[in-house]
Amino acid sequence: MPLKPKKSLGQNFLIDKNIINKIIEVSEISSSDEILEVGPGTGNLTKSIVSKNPKKIYLIEKDENLANDLERQYLDRVNIIKKDVLKIPYKFYSEKKFLILGNLPYNISTQILSGWCLNDKLNVSKMILMFQKEVAERILADVNSKEYSRITILSKWKFDITKVADVKANSFFPKPKVQSTVLKFIPKKKFHEIKDPKNLEKITKVFFNQRRKMIKKPINILFKNFQFNYKKFNIKPSDRPQNINVDKYLQIVNEYESLGN
């Protein structure tokens, strides 16, 4: 009896062999890779991953029926983690270097990605991830554009990101109401150091909480007992959150941390 996708888990199974082949091609899986696949579903991508004989394969699948089916199919070839990816402890990622692949559940995709970006235990060679097209556009967005957002800043802090392919709705079962996009994330060799990633999360939340308002208000919230020097960062109180580039946000985090936060 075929396993049915669950709407409550945002399940849309990738069935397009051309897209699967494209993902495998850009992944460049080698025999030394430790693969982490998130949301394998019915295992259409998993099958191609297994055929590349990587060193280790971890699958994170919350749906127990799907997880059990994958266990039956691949026995000792894969390590299945039957959990919500958002509840995987940070320590799971330590002392491993993953190549991450995933058709991420659309309803939590930005939460998954932002969690990985802020996780200082995470070490990856690359990530090839599928998103709803409009989310992918926000990840790739340029400063001063309407798509520019918190997820842009969190992603571009540590990764160079490129579009692999747009994916039509009929590449999935069931067919979603939206288009999708595959993105490739390559870790930057050097990225801007901050003491605590949670401060980047906090500062971007405060700024983008009212994205159409001038930045004077979030600055006053964050630096309420301190005279903030706008000229030092070459920004103006009348700027909007989408007018501040990624590097300047990171500099503002450094300033915030220098005050003992």
List the helices and strands and how they pair.
Elements (H helix, E strand, L loop, with lengths): L12 E2 L2 H11 L6 E5 L5 H8 L4 E5 L3 H11 L4 E3 L16 E6 L5 H10 L5 E9 H8 L9 H9 E9 L4 E2 L6 E8 L9 H12 L7 H7 L23 H13 L3
Parallel strand pairs: 2-3, 2-5, 3-4, 5-6
Antiparallel strand pairs: 1-8, 6-9, 7-9
Helix pairs in contact: 1-2, 4-6, 6-9, 7-9
Please explain how this structure is put together.
Helix content is 34%, strand content 19%. The protein has helices at 17-27, 44-51, 64-74, 109-118, 133-140, 150-158, 197-208, 216-222, 246-258, and strands spanning 13-14, 34-38, 56-60, 79-81, 98-103, 124-132, 159-167, 172-173, 180-187. The longest helix has 13 residues, at 246-258.
Report the C-alpha radius of gyration, rounded: 20 Å
Total individual domains: 2
Shape, principal axes of CA atoms: elongated
DSSP helical segment count: 9
Summarize the amount of helix as a percent range: 25-40%
What would you give as the CATH superfamily of the largest domain? Vaccinia Virus protein VP39
Question: How are the strands of the largest sheet arranged?
Answer: 4-3-2-5-6-9-7
For the sheet with most strands, the description reads: 7 strands, mixed
Sequence stretches where pLDDT stays below 50 over 5 or more residues: 5-10
CATH architecture of the largest domain: 3-Layer(aba) Sandwich
Q: What name does the CATH topology of the largest domain carry?
A: Rossmann fold
List the helices and strands in order: EHEHEHEEHEHHEEEHHH
First-last Cα distance: 56 Å
How confident overall, as mean pLDDT? 93
